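Quick question: what would this complex look like in 3D?
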Amino acid sequence: MLPQVAGGLPRIEPREEILDIAAGLFVDRGFAATSTRDIAEAVGIRQASLYFHFANKEEILGELLQRSIRPTVDKIKRIEALAAETGAGPDVLLHVLVVLDVRTLAAAPRNAGVLSRLPEVQRKDVFEPFGSARGELRDAYARLGTQITADRSAAMTPDRDLLGMLLLQLVEVVIGMRSCGHPITPAIEAIVAASCLRVCLADQACIDEAAVRSASLIGSLEA
Amino acid sequence: MLPQVAGGLPRIEPREEILDIAAGLFVDRGFAATSTRDIAEAVGIRQASLYFHFANKEEILGELLQRSIRPTVDKIKRIEALAAETGAGPDVLLHVLVVLDVRTLAAAPRNAGVLSRLPEVQRKDVFEPFGSARGELRDAYARLGTQITADRSAAMTPDRDLLGMLLLQLVEVVIGMRSCGHPITPAIEAIVAASCLRVCLADQACIDEAAVRSASLIGSLEA
């Protein structure tokens, strides 16, 4: 996949290398304490070359944040369209969404999900696109979750807002796991998805069936 | 509750005021970008007066972090002792632990739980006491959680490690809610506790009973 240099060693695209090294510096030193000069030095390029790829460090962090969420958010419409196309219920669709979200967080370079917790990200307008992508994802969780709880009646059922936050929160366990060096296996994906369905009051028979249907739908989404 | 000054206005203890204002600065500017000088200036005292209360800014952040977790961790042994004293099962004990943890996070000054996400906290040895308190809490969740799942058999049951992380993660929804300005009501406490029990495969009858018993046990713990 990677371009080869003369010596035969794989070469990383400069843009990817900047993102990777900047992510490490932001996590290690904090965003405020890292300059574009620090990043350029760590990559081993001139600052002018860095500016060829990114206007400033905010743009670098913005792109890292997007990589931890955009691949999931971009699939929400297609996932929800599966209801009409295949007759899949909200339990199956939630399972699909959780598994794909877990995979996005597991694949984000340098566990970029950690960066979403930097205080700057909550505050600066320049990161608003990330905040609104996160809002879209939370809404999708809330929408599917309330469709599932609506069919079930029980005391202490989370309302729409809280359900969206609880599901988003549960899936982000992946960020903490990666921070501790835990591999994100298919078994973990399945357990996180099952846990989300349990929070929506789904019973085990529903979870078992959702897991089977979700696997085949994800195959078709990715085909 | 607060001491009154001559003019009749409530006065905050200087130590509390330093903690409160420092927490705001750490969240707004980041930890690295805040000096003890900035904190003293914002409080309106001399730096020497600040040093009378805290040796450095690490000590201030350390105390803020402890306030978001210590009140819960200090009760773990007494909660687990309730099993022998009252015959309460692990479902009831988990309910008690979750409700008390939600209350600690809800009461922490300036939503200090947010500060646990600062990159410095994961990295610096000086914050190790917070890391180990968090480890103790996760272990307690894992211990009680696996006692609950052990009585139930189902596919996709989280193992001990993952269960501890999932439960800790769910309860920390309170931090995100406070960041968005949501009040943490008794209804929220009950729903978060119910959600934790659901992740441990508890059914609704078990949750309803745990909620009732938990309320009276918390009353006796706090008496």
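Answer marked as accepted. The domain at 66-222 of chain B is CATH 1.10.357 (Tetracycline Repressor; domain 2).
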